[in-house]
UniProtKB/TrEMBL annotation:
Protein name listed in UniProt: Ribonuclease D
Source species, domain of life: Bacteria
GO biological process, one term: nucleobase-containing compound metabolic process
Record-linked SMART domains: 35EXOc, HRDC
Any one Pfam family match given in the protein's UniProt record, by short name: HRDC
Record-linked PROSITE patterns: HRDC
Organism classification: Bacteria, Bacillati, Actinomycetota, Actinomycetes, Jiangellales
PANTHER family associated with the record: RIBONUCLEASE D
HRDC domain: residues covered: 214-294
One annotated GO molecular function: nucleotide binding
Length: 394
């Protein structure tokens, strides 16, 4: 499929056209296909730079949320409809930022996972389920570009062109496999998940952090990461385009004692890095002068069990429980043609194996799983088997 069936619509960039779009989608009925394009890797944050909608009776709309940043009225018009998204958790946060939030959801990627399909990307699903091939060449484009090229807009329109048809076939397959109720629980969990929740210690996601092995050098990583984040936000650039992670790690490992020494490092010889050298060296100097009491801990705070590879030496009974329970859960997942992580998250199983409820019964294991956010369908399929594995870990 190379062209939208109804032709490529004009991008909605003004209030009058937005008003007409809202009226058209309000007058239509049925599910609404929704997608959003971001500029990850180019711009700061994860805001939407294009929003695509399609509904029977209204056709396709391409909306510029930079020109029209307040779309709450459109969201209200569509609030009672089922929204069809692919990999919804990736888009819900940026849609929420502009005032669009669904109350009902169908996630085609998640449906594909529950059906045990081998490839669940949108292009692969459309191909295997509907028999159409979509051109997917612009997924990593800089969608903050203005004006957006026509071939990019065509790609974006095609992303919602077949979503509702795909949803209908996947729903039929889920019903035939007795998995539709599971899917509805999963969709509800996606909707209930908090959006735009800040991460704890986001600097610990710096690529290459495993090479930094003492707290003083970790402080360098943290101070440089925070200095970069401030500048990236000011410039509305992806942090990696302001200062690569590799430059942060090299500074932490080298610990330069002067701006001149830092400027001599290969990763800081570029024009843009030398322009901000006082900022980068200032962050290193702050970390060098920091009292020991203010240094970050070697590892991130974590309330869970240690890595399973350490269990055999520290808690052999827990290791035996985990091994037996993993085998049981994997067997159930295989019989149901499910990815094992969609049947029960590894973290949920690890925590229960490390600190099992007392006494271990199907009911107490079920409650332990429920407290960790497991859905009722997952609990019904796994709690009894895991309890048996915990009690008889052979």
């Amino acid at each position: 499929m190379l062209e939208p069936r109804d032709g490529l619509p004009e991008v909605v960039v003004d209030q009058a056209t937005l008003r007409a779009t809202i009226d058209a989608f309000a007058a239509a009925d049925g599910p609404v296909a929704v997608d959003a394009e971001r500029a990850s890797g180019y711009r700061y944050g994860h805001r939407a730079y294009l929003i695509q909608l399609r509904r029977a009776g209204a056709g396709t709309a391409l909306i510029d949320p930079i020109a029209l940043p307040r779309l709450a009225e459109l969201g209200e018009v569509l609030a009672d409809a089922e929204w069809v998204l692919h990999a919804a958790s990736q888009d819900l946060a940026c849609l929420d930022e502009v005032g669009m939030r669904p109350t009902r959801l169908f996630d085609t990627e998640l449906a594909g996972r529950l059906l045990g399909l081998p490839r669940v990307g949108l292009g692969a699903l459309v191909d295997s389920v509907l028999g159409y091939t979509l051109e997917k060449g612009h997924s990593a484009a800089d969608w903050s570009t203005r004006p957006l090229p026509e071939d990019w807009l065509r790609y974006a329109a095609l992303d919602v062109e077949l979503l509702i048809e795909l949803r209908d076939v996947l729903e039929q397959q889920l019903r035939a496999a007795d998995k539709l109720d599971w899917a509805h629980e999963e969709f509800g969990a996606v909707l209930a998940a908090p959006q735009n929740e800040p991460r704890a210690d986001p600097w610990r996601r710096t690529s290459g952090l495993h090479r930094v092995r003492d707290r003083r050098r970790l402080a360098v990583v943290r101070q440089l990461w925070e200095a970069r984040d401030v500048l990236a936000q000011q410039r509305d650039l992806s942090p990696g385009r302001v200062l690569p992670d590799a430059a942060i790690i090299e500074a932490a490992l080298t610990m330069p004692t002067s701006a001149e020494a830092m400027a001599a490092m290969p990763v800081y010889r570029g024009r843009s890095q030398r322009r901000e050298l006082s900022r980068w060296f200032g962050a290193v100097a702050e970390a060098r002068a920091m009292p020991d009491t203010q240094l970050p801990p070697q590892t991130a705070p974590y309330d869970g069990p240690p890595p399973p590879r350490a269990w055999a030496a520290r808690q052999p009974d827990a290791a035996a429980r985990l091994t037996a329970a993993r085998a049981r859960v994997a067997k159930i997942a295989d019989e149901l043609e499910l990815p094992v992580e969609n049947l029960l998250t590894p973290d949920t199983l690890r925590r229960a194996a490390w600190a099992p409820p007392e006494p271990v019964t199907a009911e107490t294991v079920a409650e332990a799983f429920r407290s960790r956010g497991a859905r009722e369908w997952q609990i019904a399929l796994t709690a009894a088997a895991v309890a048996e594995a915990f009690n008889h870990p052979v």
